[in-house]
TrEMBL record:
UniProt organism field: Pogonophryne albipinna
Molecular function GO terms recorded: ubiquitin protein ligase activity; zinc ion binding
InterPro entries: 6-blade_b-propeller_TolB-like, Filamin/ABP280_repeat-like, Filamin/ABP280_rpt, Ig-like_fold, Ig_E-set, NHL_repeat, TRIM-NHL_E3_ligases, TRIM2/3_C
Protein name: Tripartite motif-containing protein 2
GO biological process, one term: protein polyubiquitination
Listed Gene3D superfamilies: Immunoglobulins, TolB, C-terminal domain
Length: 525
C-alpha cells in the first residue's frame, strides 16, 4: 500500500491506467458508431445494386464488431485507505521544542549602571538590566527578549551584546565608536523599559564636569595619556632590541597586531589568550568564531574554526589553553561546552556538555587536568581530558569561596588555581581540591585595586599578572597578593583588556578587546 507521502504519485499511476482503458472504449465506440451509420445510410438511401456491392464488406465489418472484446471492467480498484500511525507523531511532538515565557513587563523593568550616563570611546561599558513583573517583583528566570540600540544623531552605531544571566538580570556590554551624545534604546518585547531611551555622553577622556567621584574612578586608567601612572617604572628587558613596530614613546609596548575585521590577523571581540613553549600565541577570536595562531613576534601562522552549534564547531570561543600533549582546548561560551582540537586544529572531542552554563576561561594544571571557569554558574570545574569531572567548587556570592562573574584562571608552580572574580573586583587563590587559600584586591583605581579584573598569568617566580578591565591597565603582584608594579602601557592605552599570558620568550601578551588587537609588552621577571 502506498504511504501518505506517496499518495499523489499513486493516484497519478492509477489515473494513467484508467485513462488508457477509457481511450480504448471510446475508440471501440467510435468504430461501432461509424459502421452502424454506414450500414444505415446504405440500406436507407442506396439502390439494390449499391447494397449488393457493399453487402460483403458490411457483413464482415458487422461480424468483426460483434466479436470484438472490449475491457468493460475497470483496470484498477477503488481502494485508497489511510491508516493512522500515531507513535511517530507523538515522538515528533515531544521533540518539537520548549515553550519559553516570562512574567517580565517593560513598564517595570529597569536598567542601572554608570554607563547609562557616560562612557569612554572604545572602552567596553557595562549596564545591568533587571526584569520585573507587573507588581514590580523581580523575575527570577531568563530568556526574556531584550534588544538594545546605541546610535547618535548622525547615524553612527555602537557595538554591543546582551548577556543573559538566567536569573532575571541581563548585562549589556557596549562601546561607543566616537565622541558625542548617543541615544540608548533598551526594549523588552519591543517596548521601552523604564527611562528608555537614555542619553549617554561618550568622551575620549574623563569629563571633568562629571560630578560623580565614583564615575571618575571607574573610568580613569593609568594607561591614559592624561593620568600619570603611579607605579614603579619597569626597566627595559633584554628583549627590548631588534623588535619591529618599536614605539617612540618610552613604555613597555613592543608591538601590536590586529584591527577590526574578519580576515586573517583581524579580530572582532578577541577574548582568551594562550601561549606555548614552542613560541606560539593563540587568540580566541570570539565574534569571528575562530582561533588564530601567531608566532611570538606576531607572524600569522593559521586559523581554524567554523561557526555553529554542533560538536567541532564554535559559536562563541572565549577561552583557550594548550595541553601538555599539544591539544588546543577552547571554552565555548554559547555552546556551553569545552572543545578539544589537535595542534593542527582538527576536532577531537568535547567535554562539559550538560554541566557547564557559560564557560569563559580555561587553563591546564600540572596534572594535565582542565580547569574551566564557568562565568554564568559562578563556579570552577576541573575535568580530566576524557571529560570525567574531578571536582567542582564555588557558587554565586561575595564570600571567600564564592564568585560573581569569574572570568579567567591561571595555575602557579604549586599547582594552585588563581581566579579573577570580575564583579567582586578581586583575585582568589585555591588549591586543586577547591579549598580557599587567599584573596587580594578591592574596587578602586589605586595600586592593587581593580575595576573588574579579567586576564591572569603567573611567571616562573610565582608573581601574578592581572588585566584590570575597567581601569584598562595591567598590574603585577607577588605570590601573596602584594602589589609590585604596573606594566607601562601609556603610549598606546589599553581599552578593556581581556585574556593575558606570558610568551615563551618572556613577554606579556594581552587581548586588547576594545582596540580589536593583541599587544605584546616587555616584562622583566
Amino acid at each position: 500500500m502506498a504511504s501518505f507521502v506517496g499518495e499523489e504519485e499513486e493516484c497519478d499511476d492509477q489515473m494513467l491506467v484508467l485513462q488508457a482503458q477509457l481511450d480504448t472504449l471510446l475508440q471501440g465506440q467510435d468504430g461501432i458508431n461509424s459502421s452502424c451509420n454506414f450500414t444505415e445510410q446504405a440500406l436507407s438511401h442506396g439502390t439494390e445494386a449499391e447494397v449488393l456491392l457493399v453487402k460483403k464488406q458490411m457483413s464482415e465489418r458487422l461480424v468483426e464488431l460483434a466479436s470484438q472484446e472490449l475491457p468493460l471492467q475497470p483496470g484498477e480498484n477503488d481502494q485508497l485507505d489511510f491508516i493512522v500511525e500515531t507513535d511517530g507523531l507523538k515522538k515528533s511532538i515531544q521533540n518539537m521544542g520548549t515553550i519559553l515565557t516570562t512574567n517580565a513587563v517593560a513598564s517595570e523593568t529597569v536598567a542601572t549602571g554608570e554607563g547609562l550616563r557616560h562612557c569612554v570611546v572604545g572602552v567596553p561599558t557595562s549596564i545591568t538590566i533587571t526584569t520585573k513583573d507587573k507588581d514590580g517583583e523581580l523575575c527570577k528566570m531568563g530568556n526574556a527578549v531584550i534588544t538594545a540600540e546605541l546610535s547618535s544623531a548622525d547615524g553612527s552605531k555602537g557595538e554591543g551584546e546582551i548577556l543573559d544571566n538566567k536569573n532575571g538580570t541581563y548585562e549589556y556590554l557596549f562601546s561607543a565608536p566616537k565622541e558625542g551624545t548617543f541615544n540608548l534604546s533598551l526594549r523588552l518585547y519591543d517596548q521601552h523599559i523604564k527611562g528608555s531611551p537614555f542619553k549617554i555622553k561618550a568622551t575620549k577622556s574623563i569629563d571633568v564636569s562629571q560630578s560623580s567621584d565614583s564615575m571618575k574612578k571607574r573610568l580613569k586608567s593609568p594607561g591614559s595619556s592624561h593620568i600619570k601612572q603611579k607605579a614603579i617604572k619597569r626597566p627595559a628587558s633584554m628583549y627590548s632590541t631588534g623588535r619591529r613596530k618599536e614605539n617612540p614613546i618610552e613604555d613597555d609596548l613592543i608591538f601590536r597586531i590586529g584591527t577590526k575585521g574578519r580576515n586573517k590577523g583581524e579580530f572582532t571581540n578577541l577574548q582568551g589568550v594562550s601561549t606555548s613553549a614552542l613560541g606560539k600565541v593563540l587568540i580566541a577570536d570570539s565574534n569571528n568564531q575562530c582561533v588564530q595562531i601567531f608566532t611570538n613576534d606576531g607572524q600569522f601562522k593559521s586559523r581554524f574554526g567554523i561557526r555553529g552549534r554542533t560538536p567541532g564547531q564554535l559559536q562563541r570561543p572565549t577561552g583557550v589553553a594548550i595541553h601538555p600533549n599539544g591539544d588546543i582546548i577552547i571554552a565555548d561560551y554559547d555552546n556551553k561546552w569545552v572543545s578539544i582540537f589537535s595542534s593542527e586544529g582538527k576536532f577531537k572531542s568535547k567535554i562539559g556538555s550538560g554541566k557547564l552554563m557559560g564557560p569563559k576561561g580555561v587553563s591546564v594544571d600540572r596534572n594535565g587536568h582542565i580547569i574551566v571557569v564557568d562565568n554564568k554558574a559562578c563556579c570552577i570545574f576541573i575535568f580530566q581530558v576524557n571529560g570525567k569531572l574531578v571536582t567542582k567548587f564555588g557558587n554565586r556570592g561575595n564570600g571567600d569561596r564564592q564568585f560573581a562573574g569569574p572570568h579567567f584562571a591561571a595555575v602557579n608552580n604549586k599547582n594552585e588555581i588563581i581566579v579573577t572574580d570580575f564583579h567582586n573586583h578581586s583575585v582568589k587563590v585555591f588549591n586543586t581540591e577547591g579549598e580557599f587559600l587567599l584573596k587580594f584586591g578591592s574596587n578602586g583605581e589605586g595600586n592593587g585595586q581593580f575595576n573588574a579584573p579579567t586576564g591572569v598569568a603567573v611567571d616562573v617566580n610565582g608573581n601574578i599578572i592581572v588585566a584590570d578591565w575597567g581601569n584598562s591597565r595591567i598590574q603585577v603582584f607577588d605570590g601573596s597578593g602584594s602589589f609590585l608594579s604596573y606594566i607601562n602601557t601609556s603610549a598606546d592605552p589599553l581599552y578593556g583588556p581581556q585574556g593575558l599570558a606570558l610568551t615563551s620568550d618572556g613577554h606579556v601578551v594581552v587581548a586588547d578587546s576594545g582596540n580589536h588587537c593583541f599587544k605584546v609588552y616587555r616584562y622583566l621577571q
